[in-house]
Structure formats: C-alpha cells, structure tokens
Amino acid sequence: MWLWRPPGVYRPQEDTWLVAEALAGAGFPVGARVLDACTGTGALGVAAGLAGAGEVTAVDLSRRAVLAAWFNGRVRGLPIRTRRGDFGDLVGERRFDVVLANPPYVPGGVVRPKGRARAWDAGPRGRSVLDRLCAVLPLLLADKGMALVVHSVLCDEDVTLHQLRGGGLKASVVARRSIPFGPVLDSRSKWLARNGFIEHGQRHEELVVVRADAA
User: Fold this and answer.
1) Digits of tens for pLDDT over the chain (215 positions)?
2) What is the pTM (predicted TM-score) of this model?
C-alpha cells in the first residue's frame, strides 16, 4: 500500500501490517465507526476505510502524522477525520465500533521521549502508552465493539490481557509474528539484555495482536 510519509512520521512496518491482516479476518462490520489511535501515516485508518468503515477518526500527537493521515485518506476518498491529541481525549465524547492501535511499545530508559522517538519509545517497561490504552478501551468501545492492539512480547502480553479483562473486556491474542530487530532494538540490545528483556545475542522479537471485545 502506497502511503505519503513526511519526515519524522513512523513508517508502517510489520507491526502495522499484522494489525491490518487481523482486521481483514476479524469480521469487520460495514459502516463501522473506527478509531485509529496513534495513527502515524493513517495506514490502519486507510485499511479500515477500504474495508467499508462508515467513518474513521485518526488521532496522533504529531502534527505531521495528522497531516499524513488526512492526506492519505483524502487521496483515496475515504471518510477519515483527523485530530491532533491523545486518544484519551475522546473518552466521554464518543464511542467506536472498532479501535485499532499500533502504539509506542519499545522499552527504554527515556521516560519522556521527544521528536521522532515518540513513535516508539514507551518508558522503562515499554508500557507507558499501552497501560493508558488498556485503561480507556472499555470507555472508548461501543456495545459489541472490538479493538485490535499490536505490541512486542517484550512488553508482556499477559499484562495486556489481564488489564483488558480487568476492565470487563474479553481479550485474547489473535496473531503472532517473529521478526528481526529493527534499528531501534538493535541500537539498545545491550540495554535490553542487561535489563532482562532479551537473551544475550537475541536479535528477533515476537509481535502479538491482542483483540478485545466489549459485551
């Protein structure tokens, strides 16, 4: 899929496409109201629009990402509305039939990343964004709504499942894929090994897509 990506915006990679594949097999409801959280280029919003979404709200903290998502939807004539900010800002404002998210999830020593690093750095456990997302998903999903969230097993999928189930959602892992480390993980492999996230010499990570369903 061709997508316009201005400098500094996260390039769609294996994690993005793993969510798109899970969406294709998830029984997507035509006309659904969709939230693409942490949208980046808007890749998942575009995939939802092409699958028949009635409307897509694409949210990101980055101005450039919001512009990219708007452009990539506009050139395809898709019903994508963009909004700069945090997905949590939507709590109490509206609910969605489908929430898609490829949030930052790379563990690292930086607590408050800046610039491009905001697209991947997620605190010492890699869960600074994931934990907030799990907490608000029950408040963002409409009745019978579903969410698809991707992250690395380095962040502990069991924690994600526990948090979602604790919020009253059904949750399970619906897709897995092992991939080689990219440049970011390669650059901090010693830190990851020293802090127990990986084995010494490990150069692959496993991605998971977690599905959460509202009753």
Assistant:
1) 899 999 999 999 999 999 999 999 998 889 999 999 999 999 999 999 999 999 999 999 999 999 999 999 999 999 999 999 999 999 999 999 999 999 999 998 776 777 778 889 999 999 999 999 999 999 999 999 999 999 999 999 999 999 999 999 999 999 999 999 999 999 999 999 999 999 999 999 999 999 999 98
2) 0.95
- Domain boundaries, given as residue ranges, for the chain: 14-213
CATH of the domain spanning 14-213: 3.40.50.150
- Name every residue whose Cβ is closer than 8 Å to that of residue 205 and which is 6 or more positions away in sequence: 152, 153, 154, 178, 179, 181, 185, 198
| Rounded CA separation 29/73 (Å) | 19
